[in-house]
Amino acid sequence: MALPTGDVTSNPTDAQLYEVDQGDLYLTTLGQNITAGNPANGVTLTLTSVTTDLPDNGVLLVDDGSGNYELIRYEGKNTGANTVTVHGTDGRGFGGTSGITASTGDSVKLVVASYYHDLLAAYIQTLMTEHDAAGAHTTDVIAELTPAAGVTVDSVLLKDGQVSLSNAANASGEALRWDESMHYYLSQARPFNSKGNSFATVQAAIDDLAGDGWVFVPAGTWSENLHITDSNVVLFGAGWASIIDGATSDHAIHASGANVVIRDLQCKTTAGGGQAYNGLYTSSAKARIENVYVSQSDNVGMAIYGAGAIVSHCWIDNSDVEAMFIVGRSRVVDSIITNAATVGVNVWDGADNSQILGNYIDTTGNDGIGVHTDADNCVIVGNRITNWTNEAIDDNSGTSTVASNDTT
Predict the structure, then answer these.
(1) How far apart are CA 390 and CA 366, in angstroms?
(2) Average pLDDT, stretch 108-119?
(3) Could you say which of 99, 226, 311, 313 has the lowest number of CB atoms within 10 Å?
């Protein structure tokens, strides 16, 4: 089997550090069998080849050839013996499927996310603001950056998989490899943006950005009602462990700026709260919503009012009315929709030429998919619809292309 594609979620923080189809740094195969207990933490792992371009410390992705993978953290290598040393405390089960069984010859890959460079740069920029009155980093910050305490950092260079920290007294500076720097990202407890600024709230990071950049939402529950009014904003989290909880105050996320991207997070309002607030509401032109889990909603799970939206690989569950309400032309693909009180996907007036493709829709209080009389020329193909109440697909326009849907 090929290695997983797309974002691979890493425990224990669900931080999406890896996009295995991009940015490969090292590829080899196992030189020994792996079981749940062998090698244990602190024991060497044999590979068929360990060359000088493998970082001294890092994380390996091991594929067992049967659809399972494990991220194994190591803390040293022996080039001559073709071994790495599994980290002494949290080497096994660092992410993926803990304790896999793999065989000699199975794939080993060290990868780094394509966007990770930007994350690291922004984080270091944040640290650069944490200094004393004389402009030097405090000792605790330096201790986090490098083993050598007391180094004054005044410039940062990202090059060739390393972060070079330079100071006026020592032009050679200090160097950290990506594997060590991973912990910076994992340890971030505050939202931060591509300007390098971190805040106590996600909304503050969005407001500070003022468009044209990204905001990262760390894992945890953020009791906020987010408003994205600027354009070209990417809001993303560490997977579904990053939760925006709008409760009963307002929509959890309301995006109105153009070209907004929302991905890799969970959002919700309180189902049954009686306030008619959506989990996610966008009036953005050309919005892109990817890998978002709307776990419950006091109104519509996901309301799409802007034209040109693309919704993919999302899960919308437990909505008090429709799971999805679409007013602008949209494309909804490869998503899961469950437990909607009324219609699963409601394609409304103004959503002409929308495409509903390859989704799974289960348990709706009304139609699985409904199309308004004035929503013309929609395409509804390849969906699996179960446990619907009125009709599986109710095309009131009479103009839709409806084909290859499984409604049995």
Answers:
(1) 5
(2) 44
(3) 99
Asked if the structure places residue 212 within a domain, the reply is yes
Do 257 and 155 share a structural domain?
no
Find, among 263, 217, 267, the residue nearest to 246 by Cα. Answer: 267
pLDDT in tens, 146-205: 323 333 333 333 333 333 333 323 333 333 332 333 333 333 467 888 776 778 899 999
In this structure, the answer to whether residues 107 and 121 fall within a common structural domain is: no
Domain of residue 180: give its range. Answer: 116-185
The verdict on residue 35 lying in a domain is yes
Per-residue pLDDT tens over the stretch 53-65: 676 776 677 777 6
- pTM here is 0.59
Query: Are 322 and 252 in the same domain?
Result: yes
Q: Are residues 227 and 155 in the same domain?
A: no
Q: With pLDDT > 70 as the criterion, what percentage of the chain qualifies?
A: 70
The total domain count for the chain is: 3
Question: Between helices 178-187 and 116-128, what is the axis angle to 10°?
Answer: 70
Does some domain include residue 2?
A: no
302 & 205 share domain? yes
Residue 192 lies inside a defined structural domain of this protein: no
| Mean pLDDT across 309-313 | 95
Q: Please say which residue of 62, 92, 111 terminates a domain.
A: 111
Select the more confidently predicted residue: 60 or 210.
210
Of 252 and 179, the structure prediction assigns the larger pLDDT to 252
